[in-house]
Amino acid sequence: MLTRSEFDRACKDLIAKYASISHSLATSPMKGWSWNEHSSVSGFGYMSRDVTRLKRVPSIDDPDFCMSDTAEPDEATMNTSIEHEIFTCRQYIVFSATFQVPCFYFNVYNSGGTPLSLDGMLETTLFRPYVVESTDRTSFSIGQHRAPFPLLSQGDHPTLGTPCWYFHPCETEVAVGELMAEKSESNTSDLIETWICVLGSVVDLRI
Amino acid sequence: MSTFGTTRHHSPAVQNYSNRDRVTNYHTALFRRLTWDGTVPLEIRVDPKELPANSERGLECYYIQAPRVSYLPLLMPEIRRFFNELVFDETAAMELKDDEWWFETAEGTLLKWHWPIGLIYDNHSISLSTKPSSSRSSSKPASLRLTLHLASPPNDKLLLAPTPEACKIAFMGQLKEADFIRWGNTKRITGLKQQEQDGLWEGIKEHNFDDYWRVASKVTPTTGSHRAQSPGPPPSSASMHTRPPSADPAGPSERDGAYNVRSVPVRLYLSDGPVMQDLVPPLLEDGTPHTLRHYLTSHLPLLFPPQPPAPPPSRSNPHPRPPPVQDLAYPLIQGIPAPLESEMAWLGACLAGADGWVNICVGLRT
Q1: In chain B, how long is the greatest CA-to-CA distance?
Q2: Whole-model pTM?
Q3: With a CB-CB cutoff of 8 Å, which residues 156-185 of chain B face chain A?
Q4: Cα separation of B179 and B221, whole Å?
Q5: Which of A25, A11, A26 is nearest to A92 (CA)?
Q6: What does B80-113 look like in DSSP terms, one character per residue?
Q7: Do A162 and B166 touch (CB under 8 A)?
Q8: Which among A117, B88, B308, B351 could disulfide-bond with B93, CB atoms 3.0 to 4.6 Å apart, if both were Cys?
Q9: Domain range list for chain A
Q10: Where do the segments described as Disordered lie (chain B) (predicted)?
């Protein structure tokens, strides 16, 4: 659990740290984030960034195949393949006031700027395979059998008030707690980095 | 419990407790009933530009006294029936999609369908309080005038699919968050049988107080427990106080009492700006109950200035009182301008919405 000011400090430290670290596949989940505040009220800061995602190409021959597990497509492939639709994923890392942990909010837009439906998003390279295969899918949420909260659902962004999709923070809190317990000294900024790594098992955060 | 089964065999202390407990439970139940029965007047008109051809134009307004604890998706079947039967032409009615409706206030504010209706109404009241006063002098609550749109909901501003199913999931999510805020886990709600959990939503859908509270009473804190240090007056068995004196033995509800929660589920709404949510411990560090005044002063000190201390006693004024404070705003809870001496824990037990949350809307005084 974090306090609001620990969250704010940790995010700003992360942004500063990775500003000077070069981009690679491994560091890309931590890069490109910027800090934002509400225009008139303090204490509602959050991180945001825009990344590009493609349409996932499932291969019928290989049941384990998923684009997000392969190396990043190289420039040549992207330019020559006209079938690849490009989507913009606006990503936010906000502070959950209820659970006192970071929380991942996002929306995905097509090239015309229209937000995608849940089914549409599941067809992009944003999610890891098991999310796509989860049971209990409706048009407005993805659930896991017998879990108290849906894995993925819609809610209002805590600062902007606009509808966003978000992964329920309970999932990541437990995992992060376990990871942090193993580290000998945990700075709060490490907590955000660790949390982003755990999130990476659900969402492809590479850019 | 005595094996002889009559009250005569109970010790006096326990008998006193059960009298006071009964009195306390009476007040808690009273406020919960009043909250449940609260309604607000809505006036609904379809956007004239969207009225299908051949509509009966003389009848195009639907009036409804809506329960504060209910939700717009639950009212839609009744609203739709009215418009389909009395206003729309049959063929036009068939073409309207079930989940593309959305509401705006007369001032053009989009209504969030996942908010309880009471919150929507109070939020509207406070937004009017920030505008120059024109028609706020009437004592009767004004109808909330709404425009109903039948197509093309703005999906960049509203959550998708305002169906009763989505509404139920949103409602259960809020209940579990409230549970988490109180105890640091959601075991009380998730520990209920699925049938009981569903029963909570059924109670809302059917607007049945008994059905809802049959389950909710198992998970909602009561005010029957004693507080750590009560500054109240000495105990008297004839007293009608809602707060039991601190000398009481712990009752069965002690562990789950309103004053033992980690934090009360509270959200604060201003007419502009994001919804505020913070930890609200039931007792302050000095052991005194956390009051509404203290909460508002710490979060909105410009609107609720801190009370300066009383001046030191002097010969001419041996019992000085602190100077009165001019509040620039007032807190609306369940439509009531709440007294600032109210205790946050008590509000959490008695005036919360059906989703477990105490929603405080702050309006400006003229």
Answers
A1: 85
A2: 0.84
A3: 156-161, 165-166, 169, 173, 176-177, 180-181
A4: 10
A5: A11
A6: HHHIIIIIS-HHHHHHS-TT--EEEETT-PBPPT
A7: no
A8: B88
A9: 4-61+75-199
A10: 221-258, 303-324
Q: How far, CA to CA in Å, does B11 sit from each of A137, B125, B217? A: 57, 52, 27
CB A95 within 8 A of CB A42: no
Rounded alpha-carbon distances, angstroms, from residue B130 to B125, B127, B133, B272, B364? 9, 5, 8, 10, 6
Residue A145: burial class (beta carbons within 10 Å; 0-12, 13-18, 19+): exposed
What does the pLDDT average to over A30-41?
A: 94
Segments in chain A forming alpha helices (H): 4-19, 75-80, 118-122, 129-132, 169-182, 188-199
Give the position of tokens 């966003």.
A164
> pLDDT by residue (tens digit) across B115-126?
999 999 999 999
Q: Is the per-residue pLDDT at B216 higher than 90?
A: yes
Domain A4-61+75-199 matching CATH 3.80.10: the answer reads no
Which chain A residue has its CA at the smallest distance from B173's CA?
A: A149
- Cα pseudo-dihedral B169, A192, A52, A56, rounded to 10: -60
Quote the ipTM score: 0.82
